[in-house]
Fold this sequence. Notes:
The longest helix has 23 residues, at about 190-210. The strands form four sheets. Strands 6, 7, 8, 9, 14 and 15 form a six-stranded antiparallel β-sheet that branches. This protein is α+β, with helices and mostly antiparallel strands. The protein is built from seven helices and 15 strands. Strand 4 and strand 5 (about 75-80) form a beta hairpin.
Amino acid sequence: MRTGTASLSWIFSQSDRAKVRLPGTDRAHDPAATMAMAARAARQVGVTRVADITRLDTIGIPTFQAVRPAAATLAVSQGKGITPELARLSAIMESVELWHAERPLAPAVTAAPRDVGERLGYDVRDLPRCEPSVLHDGLPVDWVTARSLVDGSETLVPLATVALSLERRTGWNPPAFFASSNGLASGNTLVEAILHALYEVVERDAMTAALTGGGDMGVRADPRSLGSPVVDGLCSMIERAGVRLEVRSVPSPTGLPCFLARITCEDYPPAFTGFGCHLSSEIALTRAVTEAAQTRLGYVSGARDDLDAGFNDSPGPKPAARPAADPSTGPAAEAIPALTAHGSLVDDLEDVVKRAAIAFSHAPLVVDLTHEDIGVPVVKVVAPGSRVRPEVM
């Protein structure tokens, strides 16, 4: 185990000193223990049904949906995984995360950015803003307490970057910050939750940079070059279904493996995409491929609240995604380096925090949203300097 973890001593537990290696993911506990925790939480947050929707599509990558009718955001949360058990867990945990983000948070202070600037330690303009935004130095902002992932010091972040709700609000609500689920994650432990949240922030930053930079999204990559039985199995499932898979390696200023997976076929022409980021190139790639299949199943099932109304298989432009490139044309797909993660979750987190702090020129920050009565660690990571757009959510 690496020794430079003093900065994280306030969050790590004994469970974070090792990890349970599972197909396509790393966890602090085995799936049975996680399921026991998730099942208890699901009942408390209002999940009424968990559905296996895998067989609605021809690919066969396990995909589940957790239904929470009284949600203030999405009533249906999706989950994917290499096994049905992991996909079921993923769906439940995502629904639990959203419940936590929907809970009202009491502001620690309401003040203009210029009045709390010395407490922040960062430029509030480096946070993602909505379009249009009326943010200015004199705008009254509700703030909540956050902590630096570099040294544990306290700071403030705008409440609007943490809370998430689609309920109609009364009074004066000036648009300033981009509210999203980016950086919202749960886990068996705080370290596991923060690590998953930070991976998502890094992933969305890389995809946003590629999207706004023009040209192609990274370079074509050969998923089978990794020599991973898990990835090869996913590729075989996709091929047997008559679906074409395109993988692109997208550069990140953190140096972490980030992948975009795009699937398309003649029977269902729109292209569906998935993203993945991790210290392990195998896990990052697995997440991207399974998310692409999950996205496609979301449209096949039609059960989500946030489906793009313009996304369909009718003739004409497809606004939500472009078709996959023909692999027989253009440069040959590049081999994927087999990068691996560390032996413990706390070492993984320390590594990713250092990379993110350098890449974004500021320490990533975390807000602990955990409710003790629910019993699931949930966090929101906010990283000043990182980028995100609605198109990559």
